[in-house]
Amino acid sequence: MRFDRRELAGAVADLGVLVPIAVALIVQNGLSPTAVLLPAGLLYVTVALVYRLPVPVQPLKALGAIAIAKGLGSDEIAAAALLMGAIFLVLGRLGLLDAAARAFPRAVIRGVQLTVGLLFLKIAWNLVADPPGGFTEYALAPGYAIPLGIAVVGLALALRRHPVSLALVALGGAVMLVQAAGDASLGPSAVEFPSLDAAAFWTAFTVLVLPQLPLTFANSCLATADAARVYFGEQAASVRPGRLATTLGSANLFTGAISGMPVCHGAGGLTAHVAFGARTGGAPLAMGATLLVLAVAAGAGLGTLLAAFPLPILAGLLATAGILHIGLLRDLRGLPAWGLALGVGVVAFEVNLALGVGGGLAVWWLLRGAARARTAFASDSA
Fold first, then answer.
1. Strands, E, within 102-167: which ranges?
2. Do the Cβ atoms of 264 and 60 come closer than 8 Å?
């Protein structure tokens, strides 16, 4: 493991996803800040020790967005975390995800990665054009925030071989402290066990878990394992879909037990870490240790502090990761592969991920079947 400037710059590069969802869950859904950061910190430390690579940790994006939009309470979110944890722990331990992954061609996985890249760009735009509720007190007007966000993207792309993300996050942290340190308090926030019943589990399953399952399977497991192989080759042999399911499943069982923020892995987060310099388990270990310290030492004031972090910096880092993640499509060869990847990506982004992936698989296997039939017919004719 390394802990140099580039490794630390890569460690903080994925904050554009973590911070906005964490703040919204704290401010709008009433989750304990300490309970929000503890699972993410522990999972970061776990992946550092298990994979020895910069495997990312992110909030469950679809689940978090729906919970925030519908104003669901901590009990329903905890029930969803427990369900997600149990499902993916079982799938991972039984080897079912590794078997399923073999049925996915590269073009379909690239389509999923295109979807994630577009999702990152959409979230980044919304951060500066229509700031989330928890950030409104300190957010700049869009006329200022959008140009600043674009400037951050330009700097990040031009200087990403240097520790630019570390400098940007340090600048954002300084602004955050100047704006809100006087209103924050030290020490952990209260952590409570959830109060669960059949109604909470039913709401969690139908409203939160069902929309999240396809995204977690396709992005957190399949696409993350594939991106790790692209970036690290044989070093990433341990980053398998089933193993990723096991680590995120275990983390969500803990998350549900303390009414925290459901977490996962993510291919876009891996691109963010790698693009800004992370190459070893040092990046997730540093990030995990930082989150754990913040959860315990400053949890009581985190809702106030994080809400003051400059959104143009978060949006710029997130948009940069989205652009670079879309670049994974560059290894596709041939018009059919490009057409399939673009079709999966657009349908998944505009309509539904499960529909995009399912349609892409159907088209792929139909094309393969037709090619085999043509080959067999030509052999018989000869």
1. none
2. yes
Rounded-to-integer distance, Cα 361 and Cα 73, Å = 37
Amino acid at 176: M
Q: Which residues of the chain have pLDDT under 70?
A: 376-382
Cα-based distances in Å from 45 to 5, 81, 156, 245, 282: 19, 19, 26, 16, 9
Q: What was the pLDDT predicted at 182? A: 79
Both tokens of 249, joined, read: 């499943």
3-state secondary structure of 258: coil
**What's the confidence (pLDDT) of residue 227?**
95
How many helices (DSSP H) and strands (DSSP E) are in the chain? 19, 2
Alpha-carbon distance of 226 to 72, in angstroms, equals: 34
The pTM of the full predicted model, rounded to 2 decimals, is 0.91
Closest CA to 318 of 117, 51, 90: 117
Of 313, 321, 295, give the one whose Cα is nearest residue 139.
Answer: 313
Q: What is the 3-state secondary structure (H, E, C) of 187-218?
A: CCCCCCCCCCCHHHHHHHHHHHHHHHHHHHHH
Contact indicator for 312, 141 with CB cutoff of 8 Å: no
Euclidean distance between CA atoms 101 and 249, whole angstroms: 17
Give the whole-angstrom CA distance, residue 193 versus residue 165: 36
Q: In whole angstroms, what is the distance from residue 14 CA to residue 58 CA?
A: 8
